[in-house]
Amino acid sequence: MSGPLQVAHWLEAELERHGLHLRGVVDFVDGDGGPRLADGGMARQVLLIGNIGGSLWEPFRAWRSKQADGGGEHPLDAWSKEVIGAVAGTCGATAYFPSDPPYQPFQTWAMKAEGLRASPLGILIHPQYGLWHGYRGALGLPEPLPFNRTARAASHPCETCTEKPCLKTCPAGAVTAETFEVVTCRRHLATTEGRDGCRAKGCLARAACPVGSFFRYPEDQLRFHMEALGLPPG
User: Fold this and answer.
1) Where does residue 3 rank: exposed (0-12), middle (13-18), buried (19+ CB within 10 A)?
2) Taking a C-beta distance cutoff of 8 angstroms, is the pair 115, 77 a contact?
3) CA gap 17, 223 in Å, rounded
4) Which domain holds residue 212?
5) DSSP E strands, 104-153
6) Which residue of 38, 120, 150, 204 lies most exposed, with the fewest beta carbons within 10 A?
7) Residue 127 has what pLDDT?
8) What is the mean pLDDT of residues 189-200?
9) CB 141 within 8 A of CB 93
10) In this structure, are 38 and 90 located in the same domain?
11) Global confidence as pTM
């Protein structure tokens, strides 16, 4: 990798090999407002790394099947750190993860990079991928790389949605236009109805959203994410 353009091309190709994508780029002039790098300096560019639909699921499953402990208590976090950490080490970047302090403003970065806004479920909604995407980590760079910038969303999908099925589908009534009642949701998931519904098939309100339905996660991935909530057996 002899120059910035070659590094950028390698980075994107290496991420895609693991089912991950460069989701957005945020630049900071002279590092002002950027996160701190491992060497104590300030990042001048942050690259958001994540999945589109179920893109990471098969690479993650293949990795997990080779781990003696199944990947530990938080296998998806462990896999993300292994993959993104290796990329960071090769290109001289600092890796950041949503689960690790000091907690970084991933949602703020995503809103700035892609122009996304939150849905009633609290998940950022993408005009193409809907609610079926995520951010697994980010890379901070001391010098910007030449990436094509992701087009910012022209409009917020929730504003043009007239039916708003996400507000009508939650069996616990935890989703409203004003808020998502996490406690109400978790109480429902602990019931037999919740176990046989959302815990087995994924959040019904999320599935009801018509935006990006093509990118819906496979059923085993949906169950994995619900089980990761750490709820007691129903």
Assistant:
1) exposed
2) no
3) 24
4) 161-227
5) 117-118, 124-125, 133-141
6) 38
7) 94
8) 92
9) yes
10) yes
11) 0.93
Q: In this predicted model, what pLDDT tens digit does every residue of 33-90 receive, in sequence order?
A: 999 999 999 999 999 999 999 999 999 999 999 999 999 999 999 999 999 999 999 9
What average pLDDT does this structure show over 211-220?
Answer: 96
Same structural domain, 129 and 198: no
Distance of CA 45 to the CA centre of its chain: 19
Q: Is the pLDDT of residue 227 over 90?
A: no
Grade residue 1 by pLDDT with cuts at 50, 70 and 90: low
54 and 105: one domain?
yes
The residue from 84, 116, 151 where one domain ends is 151
Same domain assignment for residues 176 and 89 = no
Tokens encoding 202:
């994924």
Q: Is the pLDDT of residue 6 over 60?
A: yes
Are the C-beta atoms of 221 and 54 separated by less than 8 Å? yes
156 located within any domain: no
- Cα 62 from Cα 98, distance rounded (Å): 23
| 211, two tokens | 């935006």
Verify that 9 and 87 share a domain, yes or no. yes
Q: Which of 151, 184, 214 is the last residue of a domain?
A: 151
Chain length of the chain: 234
Q: Rounded distance, CA 69 to CA 56, Å?
A: 20
- How many domains does the chain contain in total? 2
